Amino acid sequence: MAIEVDGQSYETDEEGYLADLNQWRPELATAMAIADGAPLEEHHWEVINFLREYYEEYQIAPAVRVLTKAIGKKLGKDKGNSKYLYELFPYGPAKQACKYAGLPKPTGCV
Amino acid sequence: MDNDDDQVVKKFMYMNRKAPYGTIYALESLEVVLIAAAFDQDVSLVFADDGVYQLTNSQSTDDIGMKNFSPTYSALGDYDIKKIYIEKESLDERGLTLEDLQALTYEDEDDDWAEKDSIHLVSREELAEVIDQQDVVFSF
Amino acid sequence: MSMLHTVNKSPFERNALESCIRLAKAGSSVLLMEDGVIAAMQGTKYSQSMAEAMANISFYVLGPDLKARGLSEGNVVEGVKVVDYNGFVDLTVAHDSVQSWL
């Protein structure tokens, strides 16, 4: 599979996760979100950027529980709960946000 | 750790005894640990024998074309894994000290998120004691 | 006839290096690679037997495998030469045959 952005093609796996995370650009996240029918807003970007920083440091995409706790610490208690994160990413904060962030599927997610 | 009163918490230990990269054991163990962390059990990790090489500082895998997974160990604290035992004799036999290994910490929820050391340097005798107290030991 | 022996197992895990040293003829070479690079380090309980074997055998260690395991080239047993993949190829060419100790 592949995703087309600005006339360029990016390889993805069968679930739409980017094959090479070094190819990631913000425009890719935007395109993926539009394809899913829910364009990204600032609150989405906070989480996407957080995930990219987390991956950069630890080389893994965090589990939902870890993401929730860390988001709460970084962005405030009102955002550090699964209700908030599921509202932003209804397909699952870890799975969907990781996809937009160009990261592999979180370890342990089926 | 939040546990319901009626939930049985078991002591799970992951025993890491192999150097990284030469075999798949070290990475497999790490992945299993991260997945199993979701089950809120009493988890500890041991690094003994060549397993101590998994935690060496400044690993750089660019030239062997493999992913460097050593930064992931510092995420263990986020996964509520706070007990990491390193056998002192294994370090000694290899001419290593704790200085050669990365520091691993966790933030203590019950102590205003104070950063605390996860690593416990233990003697062979002390380690045998800890192993004896486990419900399950996974060997990698 | 000169032979290049390669050892890819840690001396703490297997006796491949021990057997290799015991059976390698004087004048041959040993390349330590993958987990075998652990034997090249100073201060291990095998450093002494490495130093003794070096009287008759030339030792090499693959640098990329040292770096991957966070082991410093500056800490290898004196006399062990660090080579990269090109050096590995050169060693292969320079010897009549290659023997892998698994």
Question: How is the topology of this model organized?
Answer:
The complex is a heterotrimer of chains A (110), B (140) and C (102).
Chain A: E1 2-5, E2 8-11, H1 26-35, H2 42-58, H3 64-75, H4 82-88, H5 93-100
Antiparallel strand pairs in A: 1-2
Chain B: E1 11-16, H1 25-36, E2 42-47, E3 83-87, H2 88-93, E4 105-108, E5 114-117, E6 119-122, H3 124-132, E7 136-139
Parallel strand pairs in B: 1-2, 1-7, 2-3, 3-6
Antiparallel strand pairs in B: 4-5
Chain C: E1 3-7, H1 16-23, E2 29-32, H2 47-53, E3 58-62, H3 63-68, E4 81-83, H4 85-94, E5 97-101
Parallel strand pairs in C: 1-2, 1-5, 2-3, 3-4
Index terms:
heterotrimer, B: 140 residues, alpha/beta, Hypothetical Protein Ychn, Chain: A, 19% helix, C: 102 residues, 5-stranded parallel sheet, 4 helices, 30% helix
Oligomer designation: heterotrimer
**Main pleated sheet of chain C:** 5 strands, parallel
Spatial ordering of strands, largest sheet of chain A:
1-2
The named CATH superfamily of chain C: DsrEFH-like
Mean pLDDT, all residues of chain A: 89
Number of individual domains of chain A: 1
Provide the CATH architecture of chain C: 3-Layer(aba) Sandwich
What does this structure look like?
The complex is a heterotrimer of chains A (110), B (140) and C (102). Chain A is mainly alpha-helical and 110 residues long. Chain A has one domain: DsrC protein, C-terminal domain (Arc Repressor Mutant, subunit A), CATH 1.10.10. Chain A contains five helices and two strands, in the order ββααααα. A two-stranded antiparallel ribbon of chain A has the order 1-2. The radius of gyration of chain A is 13 Å and the shape is globular. The longest helix of chain B is centred in the N-terminal third of the chain and has 12 residues, at 25-36. The radius of gyration of chain B is 15 Å and the shape is globular. The mean pLDDT of chain B is 94. With 140 residues, chain B is α/β, with parallel strands linked by helices. A five-stranded parallel β-sheet of chain B has the order 6-3-2-1-7. A two-stranded antiparallel ribbon of chain B has the order 4-5. Chain B is built from three helices and seven strands; from the N terminus they run E-H-E-E-H-E-E-E-H-E. With 102 residues, chain C is α/β, with parallel strands linked by helices. Chain C is 30% helix and 22% strand. Chain C has four helices and five strands. Chain C has helices at 16-23, 47-53, 63-68, 85-94; strands spanning 3-7, 29-32, 58-62, 81-83, 97-101. Chain C has a five-stranded parallel β-sheet. The model of chain C has no long low-confidence stretch (mean pLDDT 97). The chains are: A mainly alpha (110), B alpha/beta (140), C alpha/beta (102). Chain B binds chain C through residues 18-23, 49-50, 53, 56-64, 66, 68, 70, 93-96, 100, and chain C through 8-10, 12-13, 34-36, 38, 41-45, 47, 63-65, 67-71, 84-85.
